[in-house]
């Protein structure tokens, strides 16, 4: 065990991951498209007059204001973070006493359990149904029985692509005494009206998390935000590190949300690419599960993963219980075709 | 109390701070000089080809490599963070069990106690001597008696400007069973050889923290690093959030460390400005304490603070026990003169 490490972290290992910049990269749910030329031009123009020698605005007010305007909420309803990851950590850090229960459907975004462990919480995983859709009845039963301090609902779900309807989320909110975190990182890709943002002020235990990493193609900038009633925003601000979002990411995020039409159009293009990918996979006899996000979830014959990697085609491999599944995000049509061509001889 | 908030955080309030962009800003120990023109030109050139749509390298390897090269250590001896703040949090988060003791001299950097409280530790403050120099004997006594899990030594000290000699730090390292964090955020401004970086591999309980926010004039980029033996770096990497440093800050930090001569020259200029400020203050009958950093520490007549603020001259006010002190960082000669002119009629 690493010297000085807390005993309860003994099983944890330092996290590392290769930085891929070449090949067909379909393993991180990133946008296959570069940022818009207009944004590059804007940054070239701004970079000289940003006050880089000064600490950034600790409250990211310009960005928060732009977010508030788009969603028709008050600036007091918004908090910005280093991706939504940091906000997940702040939510858990501000609320969890040692051993407190946290609920997540399973499988879902791995950082929920990672940050729960780091914040000394105890994760309760409620399995998805066998068709990888949410089991709302089971979730509500566990919520009523255990009353977890925090409940994570990823909508659409990473890595399976399934969704909750608004009514389903409302029904969970109504039985939950704890904080319900609705993570809408992928909501721009859904063709259904699922966002809970219009309802944040109707609940004192709801927060919606959003990120610029997916539909806005800005994963490299590491910026996200949360929208909730003012009391929940204050909760996060009590533990949020000062000056958390750097000045470049604040500027880029602000530009992006003010030009969201460009990105939403791109998101629709990515959904088309996902549909093309789904059809191509089905043509090969594969069975991707229905998805409302920018990726698909499926099983593949063994050895495909390694064979693809040899061709510099990267997809995500995940072990769920005793089975192996794969998550593949939509690439450009060209990238999708490279993947499908490669799969043709492998499946 | 904020709903859902952990009971032990009940006395904590959301942190906010005004974002100052105009006036004479001498309250945050920032550089009064903009970033070098060469860096602006570099960023304009790079911003179009940075892969902003991809997650950044989770290990900031390019930056870590540049840091390792400059300090003649291995890349395994380096970890990068969102300022050194994030690394302080990771050090405490990876080591502290509930109620574990942490030591800091007092006054020193406020984030040591802030992050200790957030990580459920118990802070022991060892007062500086009455002349605001470090009380090494007292520190060693408390270390031997309490054996804190983590010991923070800020060198030079923020906010007083005093320093430890290397021998003093070695003598603390030799009696400490816990992790000794030497925060060298301001070391570039010291005219003495104080850095412990050359000795990180001689100790399994030493880590040196560095930031780009001070001598490198990059506070807005929020990037810092830690240098330690590999085991201590692994400790931090066990809890460090993935993809913590965004792609812009990684690129800028890398450029900065590779062009450190530009910044070190600037640091010398800032030290000259501090000396000019000290002399000016003494000419007014004020008594700044000796400083090895880019700021001075002193008492001022009451009401000066508000009077300066009315003239848009910002300095830092701090309450230590029952007395009020002020920390003023060196500005440009012009800014120093504005402050000194204003003080002339106030003291």
UniProtKB/TrEMBL annotation, chains A, B:
The pathway entry for this protein reads as: Amino-acid biosynthesis; L-histidine biosynthesis; L-histidine from 5-phospho-alpha-D-ribose 1-diphosphate: step 7/9
Do you know which NCBIfam families this protein is assigned to?
Answer: hisC
**Which Pfam families does the entry link to?**
Aminotran_1_2
- Keywords annotated in UniProt: Amino-acid biosynthesis, Aminotransferase, Histidine biosynthesis, Pyridoxal phosphate, Transferase
Note the subunit structure. Homodimer.
Co-factor requirement: pyridoxal 5'-phosphate
What is the protein named?
A: Histidinol-phosphate aminotransferase
């Amino acid at each position: 065990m690493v010297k000085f490490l807390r005993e309860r972290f003994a099983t944890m290992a330092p996290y590392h991951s290769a930085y891929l910049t070449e090949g067909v990269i379909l393993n991180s749910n990133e946008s296959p498209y570069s940022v818009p030329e207009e944004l590059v031009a804007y940054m070239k123009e701004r970079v000289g007059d940003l006050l880089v020698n000064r600490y950034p605005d600790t409250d990211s007010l310009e960005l928060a204001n732009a977010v508030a305007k788009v969603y028709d909420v008050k600036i007091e309803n918004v908090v910005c973070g280093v991706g939504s990851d940091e906000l997940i950590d702040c939510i858990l850090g501000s609320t969890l006493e040692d051993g407190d229960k946290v609920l997540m459907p399973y499988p879902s975004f791995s950082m929920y359990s990672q940050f729960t462990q780091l914040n000394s919480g105890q994760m309760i995983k409620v399995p998805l149904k066998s068709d990888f859709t949410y089991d709302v009845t089971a979730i509500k039963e566990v919520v009523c029985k255990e009353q977890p301090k925090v409940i994570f609902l990823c909508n659409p779900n990473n890595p399976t692509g399934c969704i909750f309807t608004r009514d389903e989320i409302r029904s969970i909110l109504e039985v939950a005494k704890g904080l319900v975190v609705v993570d809408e990182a992928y909501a721009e890709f859904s063709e259904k009206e699922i966002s809970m943002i219009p309802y944040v002020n109707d609940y004192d235990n709801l927060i919606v998390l959003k990120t610029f990493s997916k539909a806005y193609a800005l994963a490299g900038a590491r910026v996200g935000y949360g929208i909730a009633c003012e009391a929940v925003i204050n909760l996060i601000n009590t533990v949020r590190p000062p000056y958390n979002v750097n000045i470049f990411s604040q500027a880029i995020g602000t530009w992006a949300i003010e030009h969201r039409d460009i990105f939403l159009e791109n998101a629709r293009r990515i959904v088309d690419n996902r549909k093309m990918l789904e059809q191509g996979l089905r043509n090969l006899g594969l069975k991707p599960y229905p998805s409302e996000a920018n990726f698909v979830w499926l099983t593949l014959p063994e050895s495909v993963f390694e064979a693809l990697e040899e061709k510099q085609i990267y997809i995500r491999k995940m072990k769920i219980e005793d089975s192996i599944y794969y998550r593949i995000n939509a690439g450009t049509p060209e990238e999708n075709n490279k993947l499908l061509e490669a799969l043709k001889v492998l499946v």
